[in-house]
Amino acid sequence: MNFLPFALPETGEEEIEEVADTIRSGWMTTGPKVARFETAFAEYIGARYALTVNSATAGLHLALEAAGIGSGDIVVTTPYTFTASAEVIRYLGADPVFVDIDPVTFNLDPLRLQNRLSVMNADEKSRVKAIIPVHFGGQACAMTEIQRLAGEHGLAIIEDAAHALPCTYRGKNIGTIGDATVFSFYVTKTLATGEGGMITTDSEEMAKRIKIMRLHGISRDIWDRYMTSKPNWYYEVVAPGFKYNMPDLMAAIGIHQLRKVDRFQQRRKAIAEQYTLAFKSLPLRTPIVKNPEDVHSWHLYVIQLALEKLVINRDVFIEKMAEKGIGTSVHFIPLHLHPYWRDRYGFAQEDFPVAYDCFRRAVSLPIYSKMTDVDVERVIKAVKVILCEGVRA
Ligand SMILES: *Cc1c(COP(=O)(O)O)cnc(C)c1O
């Protein structure tokens, strides 16, 4: 029996040819293909700047740094995410404050956010500097409410859009709303270069700082200004920067992936609709789309098992899917359950009850453009059989 993986990138001869061309050219690191990828991406999103990095994690770190986050600051985010969203806060010596999620979207709950901000003591109030909304699964967060609260409290908005390409909120592309937005091109994401990421921003000041910090703190402005009068070995270091640049080898793949990103989304959307229709009367909750007129990237399709009606739990369901040769995953193990976050901030399981309850029920099913109709039918049949056998008498 052949195994259906949980995720697979879709690449064609175009990507292979472009990578081969990069190798033949002799210019494998950051160069002309990165410039092409950035220009095309900025145009696609409608952002003033698009800046490549070697991962979304690096991008989130740089965006927070450029927003001025430093030691002792507080950044608000969700516990229902990958650890990268929060670890970057710690890189800068700042602390996360987690706010529980909306059980319908798995996104930061704007009402809980408002409450958490309003109960902050004077010390917390003086330290809180930014919000990281995570567009879970590719459905946009409640950005109107988040922007209003950020405005009231003077907070920067750095969006974790690792799942959100393409994605819109009230007609605007994600990537054009917050102070900066960070996309991931990790192999499982909706645009895959193996490893990689992109930061979009309209702020010239942030773009300048990010460009300097992503490559050793070397100032390009100084470089360009003196290029004609200084010998070409000359450069100036203005800060202790990082080594976060994207090589042309990755950008070569990205250029072609970007052209296909809408087609990939259309296929995933069709799969999501098929799943939702097929699972209608099963003991589970299918994903709920809050604003049907907006683009959902459908990076993830997360079902929530109605555990009350079942004799099997989520882990057994996943084992049974694997026995039928189908890969699944869980998004996410909430951060407050992980030893590092739990012990560092003294969290208990019940501190984020919505996140915990969603986690207990959540299973991510395969959803990617390379899936055939037969693959989709196979997943549907497996879910039906397992849940019909597992239903409480
Ligand atoms: C994948 C992911 C990241 C990290 O992306 P990398 O490109 O692997 O660094 C960050 N946040 C979320 C929500 C993710 O799913």
Structure overview:
This protein is an alpha/beta fold and 393 residues long. Helices cover 42% and strands 12% of the residues. The protein has 14 helices and twelve strands. The protein has helices at 13-25, 32-45, 56-66, 84-91, 110-118, 122-127, 143-153, 204-213, 220-227, 248-278, 314-323, 339-345, 353-361, 373-389, and strands at residues 49-53, 74-77, 95-98, 128-131, 156-160, 168-169, 172-173, 180-184, 197-201, 284-285, 301-305, 362-365. It has a seven-stranded mixed sheet, sandwiched between helices. A three-stranded antiparallel sheet has the order 10-11-12. It has a two-stranded antiparallel ribbon with strand order 6-7. A hairpin with a 2-residue loop joins β6 and β7. α1 (13-25) packs antiparallel against α10 (248-278) and α3 (56-66) packs across α4. The longest helix is centred in the last third of the chain and has 31 residues, at 248-278. The radius of gyration is 22 Å and the shape is globular. The model has no long low-confidence stretch (mean pLDDT 96).
Average of the residue pLDDT scores = 96
Q: Give the strand order, joined by hyphens, for the main sheet.
A: 1-9-8-5-4-2-3
Question: Share of helix among residues?
Answer: 40-55%
SSE run: HHEHEHEHHEHEEEEEHHHEEHHHEH
User: What value does the Rg take, in angstroms?
Assistant: 22 Å
Overall morphology: globular
Ligands present = pyridoxal-5'-phosphate
Number of strands: 12
Give the end-to-end Cα distance, rounded to a whole number of Å.
31 Å
**DSSP summary: helix tally:** 14
Content of β-strand? 5-15%
What ranges have pLDDT less than 50 throughout 5 or more consecutive residues?
none
Question: Which structural class do you get from the secondary structure elements?
Answer: alpha/beta
Main sheet specs: 7 strands, mixed
